[in-house]
Amino acid sequence: MGHNTRIIGIDPGTRYTGIGIIDRIDNRLRYVYSETIVTVKKTGLENKLEAIFNRLGLIIDQYQPLTAAVEQIFHSVNPRSSLLLGHARGVALLAIKLRDLTLREYAPNEVKSAVVGVGRATKDQVNDMVKILLNIDRIKIIKEDEADALAAAICHANTMDYHLYGQK
């Protein structure tokens, strides 16, 4: 029987938050679930954040991941965008903390490098490699934010120390 670790990757944003869940079984990766939490039509930042927090909590409760991977904020040219992203990350981190998940954060270039092999990979390259690494049908549409979340989970699966989780 293999050692199984369920990982949730999160790509936070106030308009679109990508969620990706994978299982690492020994050294194999398996796609479990992905979703984009869409808050574009909600008015008011507090309503968007509440929607992200509530939906993410439900997904965590349903799929029971052991650990979470979230991309760190890259410094945007636009301070307002960075601030909004910080709010979305904050509610995601709170949802993770309240459910006692182990959290790891990765720089965007770390995630791209772990998935594609190049820190400056394009969104399309990340999406294509996520499908290959998780054996997802090439025809299936994986939204950009979901691919980024799955990429964070893959990065974590490939870099995490198995011993941290009491497994051999």
Can you give a write-up of this model?
The protein is α/β, with parallel strands linked by helices. The chain has a single domain (4-163), classed as 2-Layer Sandwich (Nucleotidyltransferase, domain 5). It is 45% helix and 23% strand. It has 5 helices and 5 strands, in the order βββαβαβααα. It has helices at residues 45-63, 79-98, 108-116, 123-133, 144-159; strands at residues 4-11, 16-25, 28-38, 67-71, 102-106. A 5-stranded mixed beta sheet has the order 3-2-1-4-5. Helix 2 links the parallel strand 4 and strand 5. Helix 1 runs parallel beside helix 2 (79-98), helix 3 (108-116) packs across helix 5 and helix 4 (123-133) packs across helix 5. The radius of gyration is 15 Å and the shape is globular. The mean pLDDT is 90.
Beta-strand residue percentage:
15-25%
| Number of separate domains | 1
Biggest sheet statistics: 5 strands, mixed
Which CATH first-tier class would you pick?
Answer: Alpha Beta
Low-confidence parts lasting 5 or more residues at pLDDT below 50?
A: none
Give the number of helices. 5
Radius of gyration: 15 Å
- Distance linking N and C termini: 12 Å
Find the structural class using helix and strand composition.
Answer: alpha/beta
Oligomeric form of this entry?
A: single chain
With strands numbered from the N-terminus, the spatial order across the biggest sheet is 3-2-1-4-5
CATH architecture heading: 2-Layer Sandwich
Order of helices and strands: EEEHEHEHHH
Helix content class: 40-55%
CATH topology name, in short, is: Nucleotidyltransferase, domain 5
- The pLDDT mean sits at 90
CATH superfamily membership: Ribonuclease H-like superfamily/Ribonuclease H
Total beta-strand segments? 5
Mass-distribution shape = globular
